[in-house]
Design goal:
Layout: E1 5-12, H1 21-31, E2 37-42, E3 45-52, H2 55-66, E4 71-76, H3 77-91, H4 97-112, H5 118-136, H6 142-159, E5 166-170, H7 174-185, E6 190-194, H8 198-208, E7 211-213, H9 218-224, E8 227-230, H10 241-251, E9 256-260, E10 277-281, H11 282-291, H12 298-318, H13 327-344, H14 350-366
Parallel strand pairs: 5-6, 5-8, 6-7, 8-9, 9-10
Antiparallel strand pairs: 1-3, 1-4, 2-3
Helix pairs in contact: 3-5, 3-12, 5-12, 6-7, 6-11, 9-10, 13-14
Length: 367
């Protein structure tokens, strides 16, 4: 049997949203004989990562799944791995934390479909390591700081002194937390943290010195909020145009600054056309920061170094140059890792606990 190769397919345009949906695409590929596949949403469409033995066969499968006129680009081997790691490097940016949720959700969907084997799992664990390293690299902190500062600048441009301004943070993802924390530091008078799970809203509210609410309070809280930060991590249309329109009517033309911190954006696109709403995505804020001269080119170089080092490390690992621990030692490491994961994340679901266990055990083995 021919060895399988990692192939990355970037699909753009209408074909990026096949009628069967992303889950349906995974199922279709499985039915056609592909055993490992991952579909990641991107701002331009989707990235499809597969392990196959024959790229020509994959072309045939894609024509069946996406249609004859589908536009896509294909990378193989190291280039395909590099594309996955570059995606992870972007998700590792703290203010784009919603994107790491998309990578995890893509992983979860593929896992549930039985399409994550050893080869894809190894690549995903490396991708998560890249994301963590990017987030911890001080050189890369310029971008989120610029975006957060840009959010404060825009807020002041709309509302003036923040001492009389009320904020609403919908969701508990890290990007929204960073923006909300900075607004509070800069004088925001009041902040309400909202989540469908009361204990999660309360925990973040306590960290920020804010008050908490549940999603059932959305209608009332939208009316009172001058700044709304959407960071729910729940996908598209977490906030609808109808929700915002009702609130605006009750606010009697008082403007709202809406920060959509989701990646991809989570708000209903129709919100942007509403009067008295200043709608900004993270891309809008980054552009404003860039135009203000607050972004440093050195950042992209640092990301490239992280990615290339990871690619080289993976190539060395695959070559089998190092020793591996014996079965007894592996069992010991897994048992120790299992105890730590259960102690540190007792509320994690099975998928999250398994991923954490594999990652922790892999780090123990490496050391």
């Amino acid at each position: 049997m021919a060895p399988k190769t990692h192939i990355s397919v970037a699909v753009t345009g209408p074909a990026a949203l096949p009628h069967q949906g992303h889950e349906g695409l995974i199922t279709r590929l499985r039915d056609l004989g592909v055993t490992e596949a991952l579909v990641i949403r991107t701002p331009a469409g989707i990235d499809l990562h597969v392990m196959v033995a024959d790229s020509e066969e994959l072309h045939d499968l894609l024509r069946q799944c996406l249609g004859e006129g589908a536009a896509y680009g294909m990378m193989t081997g190291t280039d395909a791995l590099r594309r996955l790691l570059q995606s992870a490097a972007r998700t590792g940016d703290p203010v784009l934390a919603g994107a790491i949720d998309e990578l995890k959700e893509s992983h979860r969907r593929a896992w549930q479909a039985g399409m994550i084997g050893e080869a894809m799992q190894d690549r995903l664990q490396l991708a998560y390591q890249v994301a963590r390293q990017v987030r911890s690299d001080s050189v890369l902190q310029d971008r989120p700081v610029s975006i957060v500062s840009s959010a404060v600048h825009v807020a002041r441009g709309i509302h003036g002194d923040l001492a009389a301004v009320r904020g609403l943070l919908i969701g508990t993802d890290e990007a929204g937390e960073m923006i909300a924390a900075r607004l509070l530091e800069c004088g925001l008078a009041t902040l309400v943290v909202m989540h469908e799970r009361r204990h999660l809203a309360a925990a973040l509210a306590e960290r920020l010195g804010a008050t908490s609410a549940v999603t059932g309070d959305l209608e009332a809280e939208l009316v009172r909020a001058d700044i709304v930060i959407l960071s729910a991590g729940g996908g598209e249309h977490a906030l609808t145009a109808e929700d915002v329109s009702k609130a605006l009517a009750a606010r009697r033309a008082r403007p709202v600054f809406l920060v959509d911190a989701g990646v991809p954006p989570e708000a209903d696109p129709a919100i942007e056309s509403l009067d008295d709403v200043f709608y900004y995505t993270l891309d809008h804020l980054e552009r404003a920061a860039f135009e203000g001269g607050r972004r440093r080119p050195k950042q992209d170089e640092a990301v490239a170094v992280v990615v290339e080092n990871a690619v080289a490390s993976f190539a060395g690992h695959v070559s089998g140059s190092g020793d591996t621990p014996g079965a007894g030692r592996v069992k010991e490491i897994l048992e120790n890792a299992r105890g730590r994961v259960l102690a540190e994340t007792p509320d994690a679901d099975a998928f999250e606990a398994t991923a954490a266990l594999v990652d922790l055990a892999a780090r123990e083995i490496d050391t």
